[in-house]
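User:
Note these tokens:
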Amino acid sequence: MSASSLIHLRVLLPHGLFLEKGGVSSVVAETAAGYFGILPRRLDCAAALVPGILSYRLGEAEDGETYVAVDEGILLKTGRDVTVCVRNATDRGGLGELRQAVEELYGNLDENQRAVRSVLARLESHFVRQIMQFGNERPG
């Protein structure tokens, strides 16, 4: 495989560039529908990613894949470029440690969502009470 037919992979976080690799022969990412692979000649596409493991292989390396734990985000493939934009990412540790990091991250997201929903419920009930009080204060 020639260098011109390989993928250029970038993983972006809100605060900057997390990873940039040229010479990538394949990328595997996870969506709500499951895992899918990207090879250099795949048609351009976009995909919504779920928290999971993103893997990539450099060139024709026999030593295996490299793994990155990613939060939810977007993957864009345009030409030879694959850009992944996610909230959080880590490549520390082995595959088992990365899977645990994803599970912890996803668990924290659930806790945060519950906290936000609780605050919204309190705001809504306060708003309804204010409207009811306003309706009871009619001059008459």
